[in-house]
Amino acid sequence: MFEKSLYDLIRGLRNHKGSEREYIQESLRECRREIKGQDMNLKATALLKITYLEMFGHDMSWASFNVLEVMSSQNYMQKRVGYLAAIQSFRPDTEVLMLAENLLKKDLTSPTPVIISLPLVAIPHVINPSMANSLLSDLLPRLTHSNPAIRKKTIVTLYRLALVYPETLRPAWPKIKERLQDENEDPSVTSAIINVVCELGWRRPQDFLPLAPRLFDLLVEGGNNWMAIKIIKLFATLTPLEPRLIKKLLPPLTTIIKTTPAMSLLYECINGIVQGGILDGSEGMAEGEEIARLCVGKLRSMLVVEGDPNLKYVALLAFQKIVVSHPHLVSLHQDVILECIDDADISIRMRALDLAVGMVNSDNLSMIVETLVRQLVNAPIASLADDTSNDRGMHGGVEPLAESDDEDAEESLRNREIKSNKPPPLPEDYRINAIRSILDMCSRDTYANINDFEWYITILIKLIKACPSVNTTGADDTEIGAQLANSHRDISYDIGQELQNVAVRVKSMRPEATAATQTVLTLDTHGQFFPASGNGGQGVLEACAWVCGEYAEYLTDPDAVLNSLLYSGGEHLPANILAIYIHAVLKIFALVCGNQEIAWSPPRRTNLTLLMAKIVYFLEPLAAHPDLDVQERAVEYLEVMKLASEAASGHIVAEDGDFAGPPLLLTQAIPALFTGMELNPVAAGALQKVPLQDELDLNAPINENLANILKQADEDDSMEDVQDSFLQFYNERPESSAPTPEAAADRLDVAARQEATSYQNLSDDDRLDPGAAAQKRAERRDRNKDDPFYIGQQDDDYSASSRLHNIIRYTNGDDLDIDSIPIMDLDLEARSGSGSRTPLDHNRPRKAAQRKRVEITSEETIGGEDDKSRSISRPDMARSLPSRVKKSLLHIDSSGLGSLSLEGNSRYGELDIEQREAEEKALREVERLRLEMQRASERIQAKEESVVVRKKKKKAKPPVLDVEEPSVVDQGDGVVKKKKKKKKVLDGAEGGESPSLGFGDGDALSTPEVKKKKRRVVGLKEEGSGG
Amino acid sequence: MINAVLVFNNAGQPRLTKFYTQLDTSVQQRLISEIFTLVANRPNSSCNFLPLPPLLAASSTSSAKPGAPTAQHNDTPSLITYRHYATLYFIVISTSTESPLALLDLIQVFVEALDRLFENVCELDLIFNFETLHATLGEMIVGGVVVETGLERVVEGVKAQGRVAKRPVNESGVGGRLSGLSGAFGSQNTVGPVWTGR
């Protein structure tokens, strides 16, 4: 024999150690050849081999037709191979499924039980709605099969049918219920039914209430623990609907809890009591007290029992359900639960952690948190390399390796293998989870549980070190990968957020908070706070920089912080952090240089100049940063710094003994950018609550002429006249003064030229009407008085505080810092813009420009602010939205089933089987008519010659159809679909050469047709009676 | 219900894959590999429940914490139970409608049934008779719903389908390794005597 059996294949694999891939490819080629042959044996063997290889990820969808061939084999063993291959490889969209349908039907009606089993087991794997529809009629009769194994498998298969096509449950349910109520039914069938009912139960519990008495009997009778568990689970979904059940259930459940030797049943009893709301429902009753005590006591003993981690795990699960409604009951057992947080087993720890979050209060908070922090800080951080080396998926496909461990493979499974006992490093998601839980516990209800904020700040700082490193490469761009990235969002940002929150909210803690962030930022101490390897914890820098900048006055060593910020290798930081850094640098600089009291002495000047040079050195590369935010800020501040250094170098230095004030730009202007009203936390959604003022019509255009104003404002004040004429030139029809029509392009040229001149002649005032300009300025100031985005002139009452106040009122408070920053931008942009334009003359024109600029940028800021608020909510949305949309792998959608009422008679979407019943009726009617006609034709035939009959055949056909057609319509409620089906039947009949007449003649040609027809009718009738 | 049953060995080589919801072959492999990574890192003293692998967790984190009986939650796989016998891991992925402890017993019944069928079963038996392996599972779980938990009936059901092939004798190559292994399954509940029900 040349061909290989599966046995040969596997042995071959074992003999080709090292070259498995080639061997498999070779084998697959062989299989392809073999499967195409005629020899059924060979085909089946090849298929079995392919199925085996499929397990290792070798696609076999190409063989789907061959699968079907083998499935239809007469030999049971071959058939079984075919069915197995179908189960493993068919997907609901596999095309040959359509062809398989008849085969499935045929095998379902086989007389041999083992053959019936094959399609029964296979159908759940391949079913799709249309198949469900047509297979139902074949499955239902199997519910009464003499073999219990067939009955129970049929029940489950019917359930899977209902999952894809809920309507199938309607005809099936009464029959299933009948099986369930039958006391003489085989216990394993009853058990299977209970399993199915349990699956159906949680979707529509109300439909299953009538079963309660029978279920109760089954529960009390006991016997099968598996079934008892399922019944209890089912009752847990029923009791909320029928509170009277609680009273009835309590005695048997108590008995079970007290007596059962099966821990799984005991646990599920407790679980059922908790989930079914029996604890709540029975409160006040004597039994209620007892059962609550009993349950919690049992759970406690499950926790303390030595040597069975599984019990610990499930007990924690149960506690977690109790803690929602009865936190006091759980907190009684705090001691044992908290021990589990330190359990060696990560799964148990995770459960305990979840539970701890639920039961935390101000008394145990610090203990829980400290335990967690100790755990996090002490455990080694799992490196990414560890994970990938374990992940076979990373190294391409899986090959069925030759067993390198032949001896192992022969080891009896009875021996439990002992694996190495080294504790695994804390997995990342546990770390993230733990840190998130800590933050969650501490910040709950606005820090209600925290007594000592200094402690909290130390905890936060410690947590930085425990942060897992983040994969920034983002190489995984698949959908799942993106989701993963979202769920693993760098937790250190959250820690930073908390630091910032404390600094903002708890005023008395600001010095401490600032000091803490200062140490984090300072480069010298960097190593103490951050994980030794990887980039973990980086996100916290964002908030630290913000706090240091915003509360710079509390910094003990601003110079050191400034230096750290400037020399932290900023270019490598993420853009969002860098953007905050730039601000922080300027804020601290403003603090350092802003002291008015110190004389402007040469040393001070040198110092500041040096500092400014450093800042410029820091900002300069960032001016070309790919991130727009960073770039923008860098460019703006660069200009500010240039201005400042000019001011510094141009300012008169104090002579000995004299007091010369430092340049105002340094002491006044720059600090003023950052001072103002204090930032306060604003509730999320506060913006929506700002009442709309009566006189405010949001639909009215702000200014009819807005476009022009914007354009106009783009220019300098000095151009106003130019502008006017310019506008005139554009908007008004040229009068006789401009007799020759100009080309549009020429006009553009003119505009360009005019603009150009205006830029060049910026200081040239001859065109400016000072009076008109002043008036306009006054008007504008008036108009913008309350505009939060408008920055008033410096000679005016500088209303930064009211501006900020407005901002706070208007913006969505979570990211106060961020919100406040764009405002500063305005001012700076104005300055920098003018600065760049008139580097030497920075007095009057700047003011004018500033005013103008502000107005424009303010419009942009509104848009920009919108963006901001969107970006604030974006992470949340990104995290929640796709996951909500995307279904889980392996998820079974049963939403359709949930909406199907078993009791109701609503008949939307009729079932095939119902339809068929109607059809049967119609058919019988047709048959009756046909027989009548037959009799009539026989009578005619008796009188006439056979030749005449044959002639008549063709003529007589149409009338027959005419007779049939209306009868169908009569029977079948005129449903279009039905008619079609009906017609098909008729067409079939027609194809068989007019059977209606065929009945009549003894002609040799038509006799087989008659037989066929008869058989068909009989078959349909059988189906009808079965259904 | 049960979403998938997997068996693989200590090297992560699959020995049985049965998904009750159809998945692409490649996704199946990825899932197996993720679960293997999880399970292989666990010390033997750990409990037999796994956290969800990333592939499953990513989609279910949005639904509430385990325990909140939301409709969505009951449809989503939320529980991974495994048992480790000698060289093989037996994994069951299921939704919250299954009882975790009962699933452990179910795996035990499965292995005991295999042991009955093969007499002192070992990994090699399963490799060479993977049809029987499937048949045994088919007697216990149909379409993700448990239909039989009784050992006798499972064994009967498989035997009714035909003779169960024995492992080829010459395959044991290295020698009579099968002898001298400790006592029968039935009495030796490997996880401990704490619960005996099934």
TrEMBL record, chain A:
Membership in a protein family: Belongs to the adaptor complexes large subunit family.
Compositionally biased intervals (Basic and acidic residues): 411-420, 776-788
GO terms of biological process kind: Golgi to vacuole transport; protein targeting to vacuole
Limits of the Clathrin/coatomer adaptor adaptin-like N-terminal domain: 20-644
Biological role stated in the UniProt entry: Part of the AP-3 complex, an adaptor-related complex which is not clathrin-associated. The complex is associated with the Golgi region as well as more peripheral structures. It facilitates the budding of vesicles from the Golgi membrane.
Name of the protein described by the UniProt record: AP-3 complex subunit delta
Residues spanning the signal sequence: none
Subunit: Adaptor protein complex 3 (AP-3) is a heterotetramer.
Annotated GO CC locations: AP-3 adaptor complex; endosome membrane; Golgi apparatus
Compartments where found: Endomembrane system; Golgi apparatus
Pfam families: Adaptin_N
Domain of life: Eukaryota
Keywords, sorted A to Z: Coiled coil, Golgi apparatus, Membrane, Protein transport, Repeat, Transport
Coiled coil residues, start to end: 916-946
Chain residue ranges for the region called Disordered: 387-425, 755-797, 830-882, 950-1027
Main location (coarse class): membrane
InterPro entries with a match to the protein in the record: AP3_complex_dsu, ARM-like, ARM-type_fold, Clathrin/coatomer_adapt-like_N
UniProtKB/TrEMBL annotation, chain B:
Every AP complex mu/sigma subunit domain range: 1-162
Location of this chain's protein in the cell: Endomembrane system
Keyword Magnesium: no
Biological processes per GO annotation: intracellular protein transport
Keywords attached to this entry: Membrane, Protein transport, Transport
Protein family per UniProt: Belongs to the adaptor complexes small subunit family.
UniProt name for this protein: AP complex subunit sigma
Gene source species: Tothia fuscella
